[in-house]
């Protein structure tokens, strides 16, 4: 199973379909920078999704990618579905900022990661740098 993170705006939310006694599926469309993507939400996750999300919400969505093979009348067919694992709101500072600093944590600037120097200070001027160590100094206590 592969999992990916997508960021976008909920474009539409479909009706819940009861496929079998134990399986219900609802689909929604996530509008991304690369185009709209249809995502499935299954079973108990549907109720929570419908209570917490609405059309127009800007969200991050973790997806499971599921593949399936079928051989019907001697012809191979392959199917791919994107299943909702979880989603979370994206909080923007004002409208969409040009560098996409949207409040999400992560490791990539396109997902709102903070590109600051962490525990290090920025240069203080005249070419010198001052560093703060995140390791506490050793003490002289014997125990």
Description:
The chain is mainly beta and 143 residues long. The chain has one domain: Nucleic acid-binding proteins (OB fold (Dihydrolipoamide Acetyltransferase, E2P)), CATH 2.40.50.140. The chain is built from 1 helix and 6 strands; from the N terminus they run ββββαββ. It has one helix spanning 44-52; strands spanning 2-13, 17-18, 24-32, 35-42, 58-72, 75-89. Strands 1, 2, 3, 4, 5 and 6 form a 6-stranded antiparallel beta sheet that branches. The radius of gyration is 23 Å and the shape is extended. Residues 97-122 have low confidence and may be disordered.
Low-confidence stretches: 97-122
> What is the domain tally?
1
Please report the distance between the alpha carbons of the first and last residues. Answer: 49 Å
Which architecture does the CATH hierarchy give at level 2?
Answer: Beta Barrel
Molecular shape: extended
Structural class: mainly beta
β-strand percent reads 35-45%
Helix content: under 10%
User: Helix-strand pattern, N to C?
Assistant: EEEEHEE
Task: Report the C-alpha radius of gyration, rounded.
Answer: 23 Å
The CATH superfamily bears the name: Nucleic acid-binding proteins
């Amino acid at each position: 199973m592969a999992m990916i993170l997508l960021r976008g705006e909920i474009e539409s939310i479909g009706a819940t379909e009861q496929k079998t006694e134990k399986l219900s599926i609802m689909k929604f469309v996530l509008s991304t920078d690369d185009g709209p993507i249809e995502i499935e939400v299954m079973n108990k996750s549907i109720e929570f999704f419908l209570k917490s999300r609405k059309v127009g919400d800007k969200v991050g969505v973790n997806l499971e990618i599921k593949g399936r093979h079928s051989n019907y009348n001697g012809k191979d067919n392959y199917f791919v579905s994107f299943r909702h694992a979880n989603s979370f709101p994206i909080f923007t500072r004002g409208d969409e900022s040009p560098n996409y600093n949207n409040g999400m944590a992560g490791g990539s600037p396109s997902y709102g990661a903070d590109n600051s120097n962490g525990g290090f200070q920025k240069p203080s001027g005249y070419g010198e740098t001052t560093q703060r160590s995140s390791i506490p100094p050793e003490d002289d206590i014997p125990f």
